[in-house]
Design a protein that fits this description.
2 domains, elongated, alpha/beta, Rossmann fold, about 270 residues, 13 helices, 9 strands
Length: about 270
């Protein structure tokens, strides 16, 4: 356990926490599980005895070698020395099946990893995930509209998954202790694009426009994003107050507005591509 930390590594050492994190995945006896950043294998040990198939993605060469040696006699456990952001998840999951994900996400690339998982969920590759991350980021993912923490990451997450906040761990649960608290979330992937009648790529771009300037109203952000004022006024749903900001509006009314503006969105997208 004297491995020199790098790459933002903080290794989980709390015994109760590692059992609680794995238990949060539920029954994985017939599941493929992808672990992000296994480190010294505190969670990997438990997963290896429960999962039908376990794939651990570890960027650190020394740690990957350590784990490969430790689990060399378990054919259902595969250790890959790779960055999760570079991994082809579709190639790791058997055709026609879904996988579960678990991991302690590095603080500095948490959003990038989440976006990769959301894209995989849209492709029908993932069912659920149990993820540990900085408490402030976790609060944003689970925040409701109208709450201070609600923003683009909240809306994007909740378009892709149902979010359950499970528990928070103090710095001393890790070695070395980070300077922040960490929260464990469970995501049940259930993309809502079809339900809300919007396309994934277009609506993701639309959300970015709406949340571009947090202090601006929806209408001002839309105008700044290239939407004509008269077109916005004609499409404006009664369910959204005229001076509303994006962080105060639920996804359903935003989807209604998106559908009403689809022709304008297509024109803007075409001009951007040109």
């Amino acid at each position: 356990m004297k491995h020199k930390p790098k790459l933002g590594q903080n290794f989980l050492v709390d015994e109760n926490a590692r059992h609680a994190i794995v238990a949060a995945l539920g029954d994985i006896s017939e599941r493929t599980v992808i672990e992000i950043g296994p480190g010294h294998g505190a969670i990997t040990d438990l997963l290896a005895s429960r999962a039908k198939r376990l794939i651990a993605l570890e960027l650190d060469r020394a740690l990957a070698a350590e784990l490969t040696f430790r689990f060399r006699d378990l054919p259902h456990v595969e250790i890959l020395e790779t960055d999760v952001l570079d991994a082809d998840l579709s190639a790791l999951i058997p055709s026609g099946e879904t996988a579960d994900v678990i991991g302690n996400l590095p603080y500095y690339i948490t959003s990038d990893i989440l976006l990769k998982l959301f894209a995989a969920s849209r492709d029908g590759l993932l069912a659920r995930a149990v993820l540990m991350m900085q408490r402030e980021v976790a609060d944003r993912l689970s925040a409701a509209p109208g709450v201070r923490d609600y923003g683009l990451l909240s809306a994007t997450t909740q378009m892709h998954a149902q979010v359950d906040s499970l528990f928070t761990l103090p710095p001393e649960a890790f070695s070395p202790p980070p300077e922040v608290f960490s929260t464990v979330l469970r995501l049940h992937f259930a993309p809502r694009f079809t339900e809300l009648g919007v396309d994934a790529v277009g609506f993701d771009r639309f959300l970015k426009t709406l949340f571009a300037q947090k202090r601006k109203t929806l209408q001002n952000n839309l105008r700044a994003g290239g939407f004509a004022s008269d077109r916005v006024a004609a499409a404006w749903p009664r369910s959204i107050p005229a001076q509303a900001r994006a962080e105060s509006v639920a996804l359903e009314p935003l989807a209604t507005l998106y559908r009403a503006l689809e022709s304008s969105i297509a024109k803007i997208a075409t001009s951007i591509e040109r």
